[in-house]
Amino acid sequence: MALYLISDLHLASDRAALCEAFSLFCRRLDGQDCLYILGDLFDYFIGFDEQDAAHLQVKAALSEAAARGARAFFIHGNRDFLLQEEDARTLGLTLLSDTITLPTDSGRALLLHGDQLCRQELPLKLLRALGRSRTARALFAALPAHWRHAVARFVRGKSQQLQPKRSALPHKYGLQKEQTAALMQSLHCNVLIHGHFHLKEQGNDEFFPGSVRLALGCWGENYSYIRAESMPQDTSTAPEETVWHNFSLVELPLTTLTSS
Ligand SMILES: [Mn+2]
Predict the structure, then answer these.
(1) In angstroms, what is the span from residue 218 Cα to ligand 1's centroid?
(2) Which of the residues 35, 154, 164, 192 has the least number of beta carbons within 10 Å of its own beta carbon?
(3) Please, what are the domains in the chain?
(4) Which of helix, strand or coil describes residue 174?
């Protein structure tokens, strides 16, 4: 029984190679395997659209994986935080809260997208807070499509502006260490797994002694994932009820996925 974690695929209908790579990746999921998508599955998202090639490809890939018994879970990113429970169900995903924890053999792991642990501009903060409310997401879904597109493009634009600053000025735009340490300790976690920075990284003792950080890279020229294992369980066992071990953080050229 394997656990796969991915984030920041930024799928879109005009990114056919990436959508295909996601489909091929999903073919690895077997039996009781679990896939956790830690946000930014889509470049931006304003509602499931049956005309959208990326949405259809994700739905087909996850439905094939589900037919083999695999399960797929989704945590909002800062680009697709308007994805609602209904969209998740249509796509074959179980929508989870923004922060979840899983037991591992090296302690409890905190899984999140990562943007909420960075300094944010106020408009982005407000929108993200709205996205956390089921009611606000439903109200947003009722807006005319051009309004929803405008909001989503605004978020994408702001996020793209910030991206180079995150790696150039990590103390200002990177993970806020005190805030991160406090959140981890409040949830009794010593392992942090996140995306958002589009950079595969592994760090030890960054927040407090014994803390471990695994950061997923984005998908583009390369693809990045984390794999872990657990003993086979009863099919009704939730992933958070089993202990995961043998974590590996991997980044490979996308061509190794598409040509295999
Ligand atoms: Mn991203």
Answers:
(1) 7
(2) 164
(3) 2-258 (3.60.21.10)
(4) coil
